[in-house]
């Protein structure tokens, strides 16, 4: 029972009270939701370039357009301004909200109604913005030049050493080291340099770090910050091969409400300016936009369209997407503006692999294929060859939406890009192909096939005469990945993760296994950009103990083990493309002997220097130690009597210099013998 | 170097110790019987029967007349070395983790583990006063409420005790008044073992934090650090050469996740002064829990999680190991 004896408190203000709290302070959250005038305007779009019609056909136009625009959302209101009995050529459409208006703009801007009428669609609110553009163009203020220093500073090292980056302590520490002859030398170390991981740009000029607010690029002598790209929640990035542009991807939905698409943004690295944003619902296959080798074009697939954009305008090539029915995947050639793509079988048309030149869109070569389940395209890094791995089937079953294939076998179709008419060679493989890799420079390719425990690795050579020849098949290997040296010839077969980290170093010039080693539980393997060193590493991200990276030479000789606490990620810093001509390179190879002796000398000198440094260090340590020992010795001498007293007067020190050996003679009887002398002898 | 394999224990070895002359080797394990062996041929001399729990620690006095052991059966026992008879027993409130004879052999200490209602304590007795053992009245008892003792040894001259703790600190305790003399945050993880050099001037600590460190035993000044890639369970200083040996390996519970082939269970030899590794001895198929140099420096022994004690006699080539300096 409640006692009502207490008086109800009085909540009213006293009479002289003056309210000094503004509504904003009190009700900010409520007020923010208060309808504003702008809301209504924002959901209105203006459609320009609508056909001009007279009264009698207005109804028909209205029907056509309403049908189109209603696809986006509910049309609240629409208005067709009239003048002299004709429409004015533009209309207003009002949607329920701003989001619908925005997507209508995305959908219908530049929409081609018929030959003469291409819609231009804008927000009504934007009209003011465009109207207020001053008639006179004012040149922008020149910005002061920001000197970023020499971005190629890392190439100026006297010994031409390479750099690499490591992340450790579960991501908190990031460091860049010099690989000084297999023994890493610290160059730069920073705490919390990045939130997640780091990336190098394709030529090694920039180091990209990830932060909640966006991406930062670092470079130059001391890794100064060079550029920032604000993109909240960024998860993935991709550099253009020319290092001019950077695309960033953020999957977080709240960005979608803004007018400008924010899912993928492409930035200009030099200016830091945003060049264009794109919508993207699905970035499971990253990069969504693939760049051509020179950064002139980038492209993606959307439904049945291949969208090829050009730089620096960032518009579609020829202002339109290329319609390719069923297009499944595409790749750029690493050295030419050629796109390879494939389309699956459809009713009566066969599956097809096509090489198309950009921007002419001329088809250089098409290959028709039958009974195709899937295709994978592998460009050789020099752009000389393209290998298309075709998964073919003998049987097919359709269960609901899923298509099930049986008795899959593989064809490897090798396109010789540099030869006339692009001839194609085919290799048939009965077993399941687990990994494929081209020799980056050269004519060989290799792949891993078969099922455990019978996993084999085959090496093929693409011969000039028009045949593809099996060079060697290694049987029963523990390998799931192939790593070719960037210079070709040498290859590492790696059985990573579940295969315990078996590494095999093979020289493909004569197909010898140079060494067979193990880095237990290794998760990653990477060649250095010069093809002289290989690192294997166990990353904390996939394995919790024994985190380390090991450096091998190209022959599989272990040079250095570097255990690091909760080591996560290792990357070699890439180098820009070699500027020497083919002839110059050939000359160097020819005169190798001359260089060899020179470098050998340097190597010997360095080794001597290292060992003399070490000896110097040891000398110092020994000196200190001897001094320390002298002191303790003196102390021990002083306390000699004390020790003796504690041990009943015995000397138990037993130090070699004061142990005196006394010679003791012990006599004992060995035996007694009695010999009777013959008396006759006397 | 072909070691003698001592298989007298059924469970993992916890501690091994030579007597002063080095002719005998004492060993304890998680089974209940400490053993004593002839170090020359590996023949077992006898065992000390009585404990009813895992034996964590052992020690022998300088005359090899008395032997002590502490176990998880909440008891500390004193034995006659010659006959193997139990002379004394002290009931404790929790498992006995460390124990030791002083330089003179007159004083003994043991420490007990932190348990539910029991703090870790260091208890010190004088054997000359028979009442102290008989009525379990140590002349000094030092409680360790902060971090439990994981290993401990006597300093020289019966003056102080050095303790290594679960939190990685090393402390010196004056046994005259129980006051702390020195304390040093030596490691970031528990200290598994402390051993002194033969002349009691140096102290080596072995820690789970992958390092072993060398200290001046009386001043606790850090002298050297030996880095490895494994938790270090035990470390020992050679009595005649500037060498140390480190034993360890992945923790027992993680062992199944690592491969023995990779050589994680090697005993590692370091140069005492240069801190450089110069040799490894493999053989155990589990982590090494205890290592000890032979008192004349001619060999060393190791006891492992695998239950074996391996007694090694160095090859002649050991004498030839030199460092250019």
Automatic annotation (TrEMBL), chain A:
<comment type="function">
    <text>RNA-binding component of the eukaryotic translation initiation factor 3 (eIF-3) complex, which is involved in protein synthesis of a specialized repertoire of mRNAs and, together with other initiation factors, stimulates binding of mRNA and methionyl-tRNAi to the 40S ribosome. The eIF-3 complex specifically targets and initiates translation of a subset of mRNAs involved in cell proliferation.</text>
</comment>
<dbReference type="InterPro" id="IPR012677">
    <property type="entry name" value="Nucleotide-bd_a/b_plait_sf"/>
</dbReference>
<dbReference type="GO" id="GO:0001732">
    <property type="term" value="P:formation of cytoplasmic translation initiation complex"/>
</dbReference>
<dbReference type="GO" id="GO:0005852">
    <property type="term" value="C:eukaryotic translation initiation factor 3 complex"/>
</dbReference>
<dbReference type="GO" id="GO:0016282">
    <property type="term" value="C:eukaryotic 43S preinitiation complex"/>
</dbReference>
<dbReference type="InterPro" id="IPR000504">
    <property type="entry name" value="RRM_dom"/>
</dbReference>
<dbReference type="InterPro" id="IPR034363">
    <property type="entry name" value="eIF3B_RRM"/>
</dbReference>
<dbReference type="GO" id="GO:0033290">
    <property type="term" value="C:eukaryotic 48S preinitiation complex"/>
</dbReference>
<feature type="domain" description="RRM">
    <location>
        <begin position="43"/>
        <end position="126"/>
    </location>
</feature>
<dbReference type="Pfam" id="PF08662">
    <property type="entry name" value="eIF2A"/>
</dbReference>
<keyword id="KW-0396">Initiation factor</keyword>
<dbReference type="GO" id="GO:0003723">
    <property type="term" value="F:RNA binding"/>
</dbReference>
<comment type="function">
    <text>Component of the eukaryotic translation initiation factor 3 (eIF-3) complex, which is involved in protein synthesis and, together with other initiation factors, stimulates binding of mRNA and methionyl-tRNAi to the 40S ribosome.</text>
</comment>
<dbReference type="InterPro" id="IPR015943">
    <property type="entry name" value="WD40/YVTN_repeat-like_dom_sf"/>
</dbReference>
<dbReference type="Pfam" id="PF00076">
    <property type="entry name" value="RRM_1"/>
</dbReference>
<keyword id="KW-0963">Cytoplasm</keyword>
<protein>
    <recommendedName>
        <fullName>Eukaryotic translation initiation factor 3 subunit B</fullName>
    </recommendedName>
</protein>
<keyword id="KW-0853">WD repeat</keyword>
<dbReference type="InterPro" id="IPR035979">
    <property type="entry name" value="RBD_domain_sf"/>
</dbReference>
<comment type="subunit">
    <text>Component of the eukaryotic translation initiation factor 3 (eIF-3) complex.</text>
</comment>
<dbReference type="GO" id="GO:0031369">
    <property type="term" value="F:translation initiation factor binding"/>
</dbReference>
<dbReference type="InterPro" id="IPR011400">
    <property type="entry name" value="EIF3B"/>
</dbReference>
TrEMBL record, chain B:
<feature type="repeat" description="WD">
    <location>
        <begin position="48"/>
        <end position="89"/>
    </location>
</feature>
<dbReference type="GO" id="GO:0003723">
    <property type="term" value="F:RNA binding"/>
</dbReference>
<dbReference type="GO" id="GO:0071541">
    <property type="term" value="C:eukaryotic translation initiation factor 3 complex, eIF3m"/>
</dbReference>
<feature type="repeat" description="WD">
    <location>
        <begin position="6"/>
        <end position="37"/>
    </location>
</feature>
<feature type="repeat" description="WD">
    <location>
        <begin position="281"/>
        <end position="311"/>
    </location>
</feature>
<dbReference type="InterPro" id="IPR036322">
    <property type="entry name" value="WD40_repeat_dom_sf"/>
</dbReference>
<comment type="similarity">
    <text>Belongs to the eIF-3 subunit I family.</text>
</comment>
<comment type="subunit">
    <text>Component of the eukaryotic translation initiation factor 3 (eIF-3) complex.</text>
</comment>
<keyword id="KW-0963">Cytoplasm</keyword>
<keyword id="KW-0648">Protein biosynthesis</keyword>
<keyword id="KW-0677">Repeat</keyword>
<comment type="similarity">
    <text>Belongs to the WD repeat STRAP family.</text>
</comment>
<feature type="repeat" description="WD">
    <location>
        <begin position="142"/>
        <end position="183"/>
    </location>
</feature>
<dbReference type="GO" id="GO:0016282">
    <property type="term" value="C:eukaryotic 43S preinitiation complex"/>
</dbReference>
<dbReference type="InterPro" id="IPR001680">
    <property type="entry name" value="WD40_rpt"/>
</dbReference>
<dbReference type="GO" id="GO:0033290">
    <property type="term" value="C:eukaryotic 48S preinitiation complex"/>
</dbReference>
<dbReference type="Pfam" id="PF24805">
    <property type="entry name" value="EIF3I"/>
</dbReference>
<keyword id="KW-0396">Initiation factor</keyword>
<comment type="function">
    <text>Component of the eukaryotic translation initiation factor 3 (eIF-3) complex, which is involved in protein synthesis of a specialized repertoire of mRNAs and, together with other initiation factors, stimulates binding of mRNA and methionyl-tRNAi to the 40S ribosome. The eIF-3 complex specifically targets and initiates translation of a subset of mRNAs involved in cell proliferation.</text>
</comment>
<dbReference type="GO" id="GO:0003743">
    <property type="term" value="F:translation initiation factor activity"/>
</dbReference>
<dbReference type="GO" id="GO:0001732">
    <property type="term" value="P:formation of cytoplasmic translation initiation complex"/>
</dbReference>
<feature type="repeat" description="WD">
    <location>
        <begin position="184"/>
        <end position="225"/>
    </location>
</feature>
């Amino acid at each position: 029972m409640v006692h009502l004896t207490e008086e109800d408190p009085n909540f009213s203000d006293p009479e002289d009270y003056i309210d000094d709290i503004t509504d904003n302070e009190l009700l900010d959250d409520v007020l923010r939701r208060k309808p504003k005038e702008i809301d209504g305007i924002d959901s209105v779009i203006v459609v320009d370039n609508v056909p001009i019609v007279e009264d009698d056909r207005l109804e028909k136009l209205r029907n056509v357009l309403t049908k189109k625009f209603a696809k986006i959302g509910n049309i609240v209101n629409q208005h067709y301004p009239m003048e002299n009995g004709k429409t004015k050529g533009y209309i207003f459409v009002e949607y329920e909200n701003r989001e619908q208006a925005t997507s209508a703009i995305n959908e219908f801007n530049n929409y081609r109604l018929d030959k003469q009428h291409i819609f231009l669609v804008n927000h009504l609110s934007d009209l003011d913005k465009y109207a207020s553009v001053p008639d006179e163009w004012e040149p922008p203020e020149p910005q002061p030049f920001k000197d970023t220093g020499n971005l190629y500073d890392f190439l100026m090292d006297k010994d031409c050493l390479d750099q690499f980056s490591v992340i450790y302590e579960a991501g908190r520490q990031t460091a860049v080291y010099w690989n000084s002859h297999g023994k890493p030398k610290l160059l730069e170390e920073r705490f919390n340099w990045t939130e997640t991981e780091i990336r190098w740009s394709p030529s090694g000029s920039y180091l990209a770090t990830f932060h909640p607010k966006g991406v930062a690029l670092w470079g130059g002598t001391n890794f100064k910050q060079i550029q920032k790209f604000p993109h909240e929640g960024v998860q993935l990035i991709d550099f253009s091969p020319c290092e001019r542009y950077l695309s960033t991807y953020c999957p977080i939905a709240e960005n979608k409400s803004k007018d400008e698409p924010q899912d993928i943004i492409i930035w200009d690295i030099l200016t830091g300016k945003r060049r264009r944003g794109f919508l993207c619902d699905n970035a499971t296959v990253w990069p969504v936009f693939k760049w051509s080798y020179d950064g002139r074009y980038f492209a993606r697939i959307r439904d049945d369209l291949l969208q090829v954009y050009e730089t620096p305008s960032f518009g579609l090539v020829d202002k339109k997407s290329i319609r390719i029915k069923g297009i499944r995947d595409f790749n750029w050639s690493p050295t030419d503006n050629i796109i390879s793509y494939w389309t699956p079988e459809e009713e009566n048309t066969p599956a097809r692999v096509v090489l198309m030149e950009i921007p002419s869109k001329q088809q250089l070569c098409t290959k028709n294929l039958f009974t195709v389940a899937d295709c994978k395209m592998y460009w050789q890094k020099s752009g000389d060859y393209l290998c298309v791995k075709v998964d073919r089937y003998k049987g097919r079953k359709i269960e609901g939406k899923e298509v099930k294939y049986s008795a899959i076998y593989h064809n490897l179709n090798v396109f010789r890009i540099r030869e006339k008419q692009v001839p194609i060679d085919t290799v048939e493989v009965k077993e399941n192909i687990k990994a494929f890799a081209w020799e980056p420079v050269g004519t060989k390719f290799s792949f891993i096939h078969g099922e455990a425990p019978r996993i084999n690795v085959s090496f093929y050579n693409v011969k000039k005469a028009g045949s593809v020849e099996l060079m060697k098949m290694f049987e029963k290997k523990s390998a799931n990945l192939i790593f070719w040296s960037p210079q070709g010839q040498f290859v590492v077969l790696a059985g990573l993760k579940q295969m315990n980290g078996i590494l095999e170093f093979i020289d493909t010039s004569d197909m010898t296994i140079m060494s067979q080693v193990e880095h237990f539980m290794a998760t990653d393997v990477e060649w250095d950009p010069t093809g002289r060193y290989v690192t294997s590493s166990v990353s904390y991200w996939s394995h919790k103990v024994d985190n380390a990276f090991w450096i091998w030479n190209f022959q599989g000789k272990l040079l250095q083990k570097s255990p690091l606490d909760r080591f996560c990620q290792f990357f070699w810093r890439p180098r820009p493309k070699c500027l020497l001509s083919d002839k110059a390179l050939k000359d160097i190879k020819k005169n190798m002997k001359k260089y060899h002796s020179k470098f050998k000398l340097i190597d010997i000198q360095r080794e001597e220097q290292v060992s003399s440094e070490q000896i110097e260090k040891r000398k110092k340590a020994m000196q200190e130690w001897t001094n320390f020992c002298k002191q303790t010795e003196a102390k021990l001498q002083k306390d000699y009597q004390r020790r003796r007293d504690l041990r009943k007067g015995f000397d138990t020190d037993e130090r070699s210099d004061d142990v005196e050996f006394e010679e003791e003679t012990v006599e004992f009887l060995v035996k007694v013998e009695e010999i009777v002398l013959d008396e006759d002898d006397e | 170097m072909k070691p003698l394999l001592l298989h007298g224990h059924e469970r993992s070895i916890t501690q091994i110790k030579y007597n002063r002359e080095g002719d005998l080797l004492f060993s304890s394990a998680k089974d209940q019987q400490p053993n004593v062996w002839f170090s020359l041929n590996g023949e077992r001399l006898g065992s000390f029967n009585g404990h009813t729990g895992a034996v964590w620690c052992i020690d022998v006095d300088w005359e090899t007349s008395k032997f002590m052991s502490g176990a998880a059966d909440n008891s500390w026992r004193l034995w006659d070395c010659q006959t193997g008879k139990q002379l004394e027993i002290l009931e404790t409130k929790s498992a006995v983790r460390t124990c030791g004879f002083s330089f003179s052999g007159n004083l003994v200490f043991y420490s007990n583990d932190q348990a539910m209602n029991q703090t870790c304590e260091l208890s010190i007795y004088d054997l000359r006063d028979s009442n102290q053992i008989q009525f379990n009245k140590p002349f000094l008892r030092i409680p360790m409420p902060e971090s439990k003792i994981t290993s401990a040894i006597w300093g020289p001259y019966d003056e102080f005790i050095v303790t290594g703790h679960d939190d990685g600190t090393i402390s010196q305790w004056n046994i005259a008044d129980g006051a702390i003399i020195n304390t040093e945050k030596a490691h970031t993880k528990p200290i598994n073992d402390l051993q002194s050099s033969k002349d009691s001037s140096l102290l080596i600590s072995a820690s789970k934090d992958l390092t072993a460190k060398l200290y001046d035993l009386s001043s606790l000044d850090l002298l050297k650090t030996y880095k490895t890639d494994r938790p270090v369970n035990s470390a020992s200083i050679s009595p005649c050469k500037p060498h140390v040996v480190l034993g360890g390996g992945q923790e027992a519970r993680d062992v199944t996740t690592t491969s023995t082939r990779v050589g994680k269970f090697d005993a590692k030899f370091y140069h005492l002064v240069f801190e450089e590794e110069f040799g490894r001895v493999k053989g155990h198929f589990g982590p090494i829990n205890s290592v000890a140099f032979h008192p004349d420096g001619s060999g060393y022994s190791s006891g492992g999680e695998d239950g074996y004690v391996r007694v090694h006699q160095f090859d002649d080539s050991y004498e030839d190991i030199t460092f250019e300096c």
